[in-house]
């Protein structure tokens, strides 16, 4: 059983989806990815989640993020269920849904938690970088739908902190001040952060978001 941790290479797989057969790493290319699992087709919470992701198409695209969903039902079932999602959520599902009847991908990513549900996958989320490494994991129980605004917020932080020597404070949103990384000395601040900074404590230094 896989126990995937942050920084691990996301396991690759070749699988049938609602958009044909894909090799996961090849499909990702140089994009970021979000792989998220669902307990089953034709379930109410999942219907709202898949519709929400489709409605957030523009938000994912401008962040260079490709979403891909999974449930342990087959592709034919997924394709019929998409009709319900599009109708009830007023959207068009335009990303692949993996058919995982043999649980191959669910087991690779440890998505089945027997004490929560013996056969169904829990609501797992994996954010994967262009380097194919896992940047974030989240696990929700089947009864709780995910907050995709929070997932977008985390992606904004991951993409910012990957390229700048900052971290993001509690409840941070894109455009707000950031924490200067401890690895940056006070002498280096003008070089890295020409917008200036505020020192609250020697270890707590704030600066305007550098990529805005």
TrEMBL record:
InterPro entries: AhpC/TSA, Peroxiredoxin_AhpC-typ, Peroxiredoxin_C, PRX_1cys, Thioredoxin-like_sf, Thioredoxin_domain
Domain Thioredoxin: 4-160
SUPFAM superfamilies xref list: Thioredoxin-like (SSF52833)
Keywords, in A-Z order: Antioxidant, Oxidoreductase, Peroxidase, Redox-active center
Recorded GO MF terms: peroxiredoxin activity
Active site, UniProt feature: 46 (cysteine sulfenic acid (-soh) intermediate)
Assigned GO CC terms: cytosol
Keyword match Oxidoreductase: yes
Pfam families with a match to the protein in the record: 1-cysPrx_C, AhpC-TSA
Gene Ontology BP term (one): cell redox homeostasis
Family to which the UniProt record says this protein belongs: Belongs to the peroxiredoxin family. Prx6 subfamily.
Protein name, UniProt field: Alkyl hydroperoxide reductase subunit AhpC
Source organism of the structure: Leeuwenhoekiella marinoflava
